[in-house]
User: Which sequence fits this backbone?
């Protein structure tokens, strides 16, 4: 099946131009002219990449990107922001909200197509890596592709946030992270999240994977600093 690309812009002529060139490249194209419709399409269909305008009626492009990144199902969806606003601050904000790439209008269609192909190649490579990637240490086993975690061959049920926290820490064993750093890396741009939230999730995570809570063997507290996954080696 051809890869499906969602083009989101309130300028119909531009959507038609981009869609025509994408279809010439063999892609299947979906169209939306506002943020609400874009979110509906992403949730209802299997979209492989989204080209998203910043200035949209209703829900703005930044907010659309932010909401998609908070959805575990579509969090990894490649997003190219395509917008008339070319200021450096807009680019930075777009990337911080989770956009993978940023192109300012007026733009070269050839450049846009090249970036689409590059992002899809990167996305395919990441999917292949995730399919094969399994982390095993002592009695802990994590399958990153299926989100299955087992301890001593018994499955444990983690919330999406607990899984993200465990995944992040075990991919950086031995490195200490403060609560604020974990909020940035794991929770991202979620609003109204306090540093103590990290402590609560660490406690819940330990309750699931540790045999001896007073003496954890996987997620360790570094007093006065933060937390780390134990050293491996």
Assistant:
């Amino acid at each position: 099946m051809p890869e499906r690309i969602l083009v989101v812009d309130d300028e119909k002529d531009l959507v038609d131009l981009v869609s025509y060139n994408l279809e010439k490249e063999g892609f299947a194209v979906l169209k939306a002219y506002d943020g609400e419709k874009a979110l509906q399409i992403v949730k209802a269909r299997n979209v492989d990449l989204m080209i998203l305008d910043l200035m949209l009626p209703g829900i703005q492009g930044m907010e659309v990107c932010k909401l998609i990144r908070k959805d575990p199902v579509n969090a990894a969806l490649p997003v190219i922001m395509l917008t008339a606003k070319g200021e450096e601050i807009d680019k930075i904000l777009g990337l911080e909200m989770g956009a993978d790439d940023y192109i300012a209008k007026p733009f070269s269609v050839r450049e846009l197509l090249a970036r689409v192909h590059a992002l899809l190649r990167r996305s395919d490579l990441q999917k292949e890596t995730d399919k094969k990637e399994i982390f095993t240490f002592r009695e802990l086993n994590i399958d990153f592709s299926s989100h299955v975690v087992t301890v001593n061959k018994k499955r444990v049920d983690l919330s999406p946030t607990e899984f993200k926290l465990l995944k992040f820490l075990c991919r950086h064993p031995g490195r200490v992270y403060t609560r604020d750093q974990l909020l940035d890396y794991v929770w991202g741009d979620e609003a109204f999240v306090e540093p103590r939230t990290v402590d609560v999730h660490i406690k819940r995570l330990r309750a699931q994977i540790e045999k001896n809570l007073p003496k954890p063997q996987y997620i360790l507290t570094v007093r006065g600093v933060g937390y780390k996954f134990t050293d491996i080696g």
